[in-house]
Every structure is written in structure tokens, then in C-alpha cells.
Design a protein that fits this description.
alpha+beta, disordered C terminus, about 575 residues, four-stranded antiparallel sheet, 2 domains, about 60% helix
Length: about 575
């Protein structure tokens, strides 16, 4: 065949087929690279010198590359649904911004409240008069519209005595730069007529003429000659806030808040560490739920399994101060996984052989685990001289080694990567995984096809317990480095959101865990940096999670309806396998 024949009509078609087949892979890879570069560039302010001057910068870059890999898996695994997830996130963030804007509509109120000072400045001799409030060059002050006060001060009218021809300057200003109060000042005669008024100060007056002024929002009547002897009034109050100013302030504060939400977790290495360490726990919990939910077992036992994993790993750590870390750490990992396995096996056996509802049994077992954890911690592990309920700090040999200095990002990153890979092999490439998928698609068909559904249900719950136990070990030996009360703060139940967002796909869970942890970390920095109240932050976070999860639930229930239709029409197992769970 000639070269011309080889490049015939079939070649363009083959080329087009190649690009269609690998388009998602290319898009995912590009998205992962962009995110990796963006996060790294933001962390180090775009400075290569700053990056290379940071200790363990290679490990930071490695973790960011793994984050990019999670985005690649997200795009490749979810395909077009990835666009739906991203659009849902964008809509949720826009709604969150709207909520923030509404709650910030009162942000301009800071111009109407705060501590202030007022004075009459003059080189003339003061007139002695015991019945007036002010004297030349003497200050008086107060606070406008102080919160939680029965009768807050909203205006003041202080009198002073003056002589004809006295040149005076009237000042009303914020006490210091912590007060944003925006005041006006008026000079009134004895009849109450306004002789002069001002609502602002000039830059020259602020910087050179009057040392007490704070900003141009302060009010100054400069160089006014009194027309006659008598008693005059210095009147001051906050200026009315215009609608445009209120809207502009609300927009400015909302932008500041969302900048903290969206960029706060990657502004500095220590903040980035908070995001990554939180994501590791959430991904492990999401993996636990995703594995169990794939078999249509609505187990919520990860909380109890987490507590048992943490307790076992903590007990071993506290009683092995002299065992080398290279031996102790693998043993702790194995022990926490075994504890989670055993505690996950209990509800599995109850469901498989006694028909117990897994939702009820796992919730009750969670209570048993948490109370048992508290009892052992309080009466057995807490040092006698401890001022609060917690164990002693673990020795260095029992703590997961840190891979990024000044953070709690540990080798749990690599443990997590192994867990994700093994979970994928289990679900997609083993007979047990096949049985899990079949049971999740149609339990009656699985029984009819000879699948030992009781054994599979027990094992799937126990395997989910392994991963949850590892999450407990990460909290105890990687983050807190001791056993404390409420070690998870109900974090396990947030793993349900992570699993649902990922459509129960174990390769997508790392991305959704990172996303959810990013929102959690961003909410902390939003509250801290933008002074957004805790309640508003939680509301925004709830709106985002609700919309994202609702979008995931729609797909989830559509898949269930599809399986029901397949069951009614009697399709083959291959059809069942094609259903996206």
C-alpha cells in the first residue's frame, strides 16, 4: 500500500476518533495542570525564590500535583456530569454571595456609630462661664449609637461662650482609626440659627492643620469669626447614609468576604495545610460511605468506627513510647483499620442474619462507640493532673511524620492515595466488587444469580469500617496527636455529603472531599478576615452544600428509578452493570 493510500479518507476519521476518545483526558489533564499551577503560584506569590526558600517546598508541590490529579479523575470519571457539578457550585456560590450581600446591607452603619470627639479651637482668651459645656481648646467626647444601650446617643449639642470677633474652628471627629463614624458639625447661635456647617475635612486639614483629625470624614468649620458676645452651640451627629453608599459598602464587604472564602485557604502555607489535613479526613470518610452505599446499604456507622479507630491507635501510641516509629506507625495503621473492620462487621451481621435496619443499628452503635470512647478517656487515659479531658500528648514515634513543615500535613497523604487505589481495585477489578455492584443494582437479581448477599453485605460494611477507622487514626495521630473529647466533632456525617457529591464513585471522592474541605476552610477565613458573623458563614456554607447535594441526589434517584425500570423489564446483568450508581 502506498503512502498516498494510507493517508486516504480513513485517516481523518481515525484522527477524529482518537481526539473524541481522549478529549476528556486532555481536558482533565489541562484543568489539573492549571489548578496545580494556580494554587502553587498563589501560595508563593508567584515568586520562585520564595518557593525554593520554603522548607519542604517539594512536598507542597507534590501534594498540589495530587490535587491536580484528583481534578483529572473528576473530569474523566463523571464526563458531562462534571459540568453539571461545576455549574451547581457556581450557582451555589452566587446564591451565597447574594446572602452575604443582604446581610452586609447594614455594613455602612459603621459610619453612624462609634466613639467621637468635639472641640472648639481658638487662639482667643476663653470666656469664663460655668453654665456652658465647652471651653476653647478643650475636648469632649462620647459614642454615637452604642449597641445594646437603652437610650443610645444619636446627637449632641454642647455650648461654649465666645466674644465678638473671636476666630474659632469647630471640630467633630472620630476618636481614633478604629472608629469609622462619619460626623457633621454645625455652629448655632443662641436663637438656634445655623451660622456655619461642615460635613468633611480636607486632606490638608487632616495632615497638617489639625493633629486630632483622623480622616476626611471628620467635620471642620475653620476660621469662623463670632459675630457677637454670647453663648454658642456646637452641634454634631452622624451623617445620614445614602442608599448608594450603603449598597457600595455592602458590595465591598461581600467581595472582601468572598475573596477570603475563595482564596483564603491558599494564601499562606499554614492555611493551605488546614485545607489539606481537613480534606484527608473528609476523603477517607467519603470513601467509607461510598463503598457501603454502592451496595445500597444506608449505613451511617462511620462515626462509631472512627472513634474506635482513634481509640485503638491512641491506646497503642500511649503504651509504646520506646518502639521505633518505623515499626510502630505501620502497626498503628493496621490496628486502627482492624478496629474499624470489627466495628463495621457488627451492623453488617445484624443486617445480614437478623434483618436489622442498618440505619437504626449503625446510629445506635455510634452512640455506644462515642460513650465508650469518653468513658475510657475520662477514667483510664486522662492524666490525674490534667485540667481538661484529654490523654497525654503522643510521643514523636507514635505521631504520623509531617511532610510539610509548619503544618499537620503528614504521610496520611500517601496512605490516602493507597486507600483510593485499593478501593478502586476492590470495586472495579475483583469478584467482591462485582458482587457489591450487582447488589447495589438489584438485590433480588443478585440472590437469583447465586451471589452470597449476606456475606457481601457484611463485608462491605466492614470494609467501609476499615477506611473510617483510618480516618480516626489520622485525627488522633496526625492532627490532634492525643485523644480528646469530641475528636471528630460529627465530621463523619459530613462524609455523606462528600460521597453523594462523588456519585458514590471512589475515584471522584478525592475531588469532592477537596472541594468540601476547601469550602469549610474558606468559611473559617471568611469569618476571621472579613468579620462575617459565624451564623452568616454557616448559612452560606449550608446553601452551597444544599444545592450541590440536591443536584447529586437528583442523579442518585434517577439512577434508582432506572434500576427499577430495568428490574421490571427483566434486562440482563450487563444492562445492570451499565447503570451509573
Amino acid at each position: 500500500m502506498t503512502a498516498k493510500q494510507k493517508s486516504g479518507p480513513g485517516a481523518p476519521a481515525a484522527s477524529a476518533s482518537f481526539w473524541r476518545k481522549h478529549l476528556l483526558l486532555i481536558i482533565g489533564a489541562l484543568a489539573g495542570i492549571v489548578v496545580t499551577l494556580f494554587v502553587t503560584n498563589t501560595l508563593f506569590d508567584g515568586s520562585m525564590e520564595k518557593m525554593t526558600g520554603t522548607a519542604t517546598w517539594q512536598n507542597i508541590l507534590l501534594v498540589n500535583v495530587l490535587v491536580g490529579g484528583c481534578i483529572l479523575l473528576f473530569v474523566v470519571e463523571l464526563k458531562r456530569q462534571a459540568i453539571r457539578v461545576l455549574l451547581t457550585v457556581i450557582v451555589a456560590l452566587l446564591l451565597g454571595f447574594l446572602v452575604t450581600f443582604i446581610f452586609n446591607l447594614d455594613s455602612a452603619d459603621r459610619f453612624t456609630r462609634g466613639e467621637f470627639r468635639a472641640q472648639v479651637v481658638s487662639e482667643a482668651e476663653p470666656v469664663e462661664n460655668d453654665d456652658v459645656d465647652l471651653e476653647y481648646n478643650k475636648r469632649r467626647g462620647g459614642e454615637f449609637n452604642k449597641p445594646n444601650v437603652v437610650a443610645p446617643v444619636s446627637e449632641v449639642a454642647w455650648t461654649f461662650a465666645g466674644s465678638e470677633g473671636d476666630v474659632v474652628s469647630l471640630l467633630a471627629y472620630a476618636k481614633n482609626r478604629r472608629s469609622d463614624v462619619n460626623v457633621l458639625v454645625e455652629l448655632r447661635d443662641e436663637a438656634g440659627a445655623v451660622l456655619a456647617a461642615a460635613t468633611s475635612a480636607t486632606e490638608l486639614q487632616v495632615e497638617e492643620t489639625f493633629d486630632d483629625l483622623v480622616s476626611v470624614r471628620d467635620a471642620v468649620i475653620e476660621g469662623f469669626a463670632l459675630p457677637a458676645d454670647g453663648v454658642y452651640t456646637l452641634y454634631t451627629r452622624p451623617e445620614e447614609v445614602e442608599t448608594g453608599t450603603a449598597l457600595a459598602e455592602a458590595m465591598s464587604q461581600s467581595q472582601l468576604a468572598f475573596e477570603a472564602l475563595l482564596l483564603g485557604p491558599i494564601e499562606r502555607v499554614n492555611r493551605w495545610g488546614v485545607w489539606i489535613q481537613d480534606a484527608i479526613t473528609l476523603i477517607l470518610l467519603g470513601m467509607s460511605f461510598a463503598i457501603v452505599f454502592r451496595a445500597q446499604q444506608f449505613s451511617l456507622g462511620a462515626e462509631g468506627q472512627l472513634y474506635f479507630g482513634a481509640l485503638v491507635s491512641g491506646i497503642i501510641a500511649l503504651n509504646s513510647p520506646h518502639v521505633p516509629g518505623v515499626i510502630l506507625i505501620p502497626f498503628i495503621i493496621l490496628a486502627s483499620a482492624t478496629a474499624g473492620f470489627v466495628y463495621g462487621l457488627i451492623p453488617g451481621a445484624l443486617k445480614a442474619y437478623l434483618g436489622a435496619n442498618e440505619l437504626v443499628s449503625t446510629l445506635m452503635l455510634n452512640v455506644i462507640a462515642t460513650r465508650f470512647f469518653e468513658m475510657v478517656l475520662n477514667f483510664q487515659l486522662k492524666p490525674p493532673d490534667a485540667g481538661y479531658v484529654a490523654s497525654s500528648k503522643f510521643t514523636d514515634n507514635a505521631v504520623l511524620p509531617v511532610i510539610v513543615e509548619s503544618t499537620q500535613v503528614t504521610i496520611a497523604v500517601f496512605i490516602l492515595a493507597v486507600v483510593v487505589f485499593i478501593s478502586w481495585l476492590l470495586i472495579r477489578r475483583t469478584p467482591l466488587g462485582y458482587e457489591i455492584r450487582i447488589i447495589g443494582s438489584n438485590l433480588r437479581f443478585a440472590d437469583y444469580g447465586g451471589v452470597n448477599s449476606k456475606r457481601t453485605i457484611m463485608l462491605v460494611m466492614a470494609i467501609g469500617g476499615i477506611v473510617a477507622g483510618l480516618a480516626g487514626m489520622h485525627l488522633a495521630n496526625g492532627i490532634h496527636r492525643q485523644l480528646i473529647l469530641n475528636i471528630s466533632f460529627a465530621l463523619a456525617f459530613e462524609g455523606v455529603v462528600v460521597a453523594l457529591l462523588a456519585r458514590l464513585n471512589v475515584l471522584v471522592v478525592p475531588f469532592t472531599g477537596l472541594l468540601y474541605a476547601y469550602l469549610r476552610a474558606g468559611a473559617q477565613f471568611m469569618e476571621r478576615d472579613a468579620n462575617v458573623s459565624f451564623e452568616v458563614v454557616r448559612m452560606i456554607q449550608a446553601i452551597i452544600i444544599l444545592l450541590i447535594t440536591a443536584e447529586a441526589l437528583v442523579t442518585f434517584f434517577q439512577a434508582r428509578q432506572k434500576r427499577a425500570d430495568i428490574d421490571e423489564t427483566g434486562h440482563t446483568v450487563e444492562s445492570l452493570e451499565g447503570a451509573d450508581v
